[in-house]
Amino acid sequence: MNRMMPIFSRLLKLNTERIFSVEFIVRLLRPALSAQISNPVSDLDSDRDIDLFMALASELPSNLPLVRLWTRAEAEWQCRNRAGALTVSSEVGGRRGILTGYLMQAASAPPTTVVLLGDLFWGDLEPAERTELLESFLRAGAGKGARFASCPVLGYASLDPLTTAGFRRSKRVIHTYLTFWNGLQPRPVPALYIDVF
After folding, report:
1. Is-contact 121 97, C-beta < 8 A?
2. Quick one: which of 98, 124, 142, 156 has the fewest CB in 10 Å?
């Protein structure tokens, strides 16, 4: 698709521009992590995680040019109803944060389970608390059979906890294209918050 979109756009005479390139960072998960789980996943039958997710999503910086907006039903799907959903939240001294993602099978031989981090809502957690939240998420993913963790780099959230935890840049890149129908020319953006598959 990275190669096909510009070709189709020219053929159809669309006003399409690549506005952002999504890179990924990855980390190997060791099966031993699953033995260290001490119930890090919050009670996904409660609405507390959904409330926290909605609150922190609405607090994303207003200077982001493209931001995914959530309905409550969509947030419930993202946090607990989608296949392989994984949500881990933290509350320490009134400071809160939440990470969501999902487990998927990578197209490899043999098939490998990967946990994709979808939403990095650090909230007002301190750096050490962010690191612990991430480690809880990774332990939960490893406990469900994930061998790798992957995270898209979108620029809306700090990646410091991930780089500290050993995440490294991968070769995978997905380009984001935008078409305006009113004759305006799309321009590149420095960051965005959207769903990436």
Report:
1. yes
2. 124
How many residues would you count in the chain? 197
List for the chain the helix, strand, coil content (%; round to 5).
Answer: 30, 30, 40
Report the predicted TM-score, pTM, of the whole model to 2 decimal places.
0.87
Residue 49: helix, strand or coil by DSSP?
helix
In sequence order, the 6+-apart residues with CB closer than 8 A to the CB of 79 are: 44, 49, 50, 53, 85, 87, 100
The answer to whether 163 and 109 have CB atoms below 8 angstroms apart is: no
- Do the beta carbons of residue 33 and residue 147 sit within 8 Å? no
Place of tokens 């506005």: 19
Write out pLDDT tens, residues 17-68: 889 999 999 999 987 544 454 444 444 447 899 999 999 999 998 889 999 9
Distance of CA 53 to the CA centre of its chain: 13
Q: In the numeric block, which tokens belong to residue 98?
A: 């939440």
Asked whether 154 and 64 are in contact (CB, 8 A), the reply is: no
Tokens of 193: 């918050």
The domains of the chain, with CATH numbers, are: 4-179 (3.40.630.30)
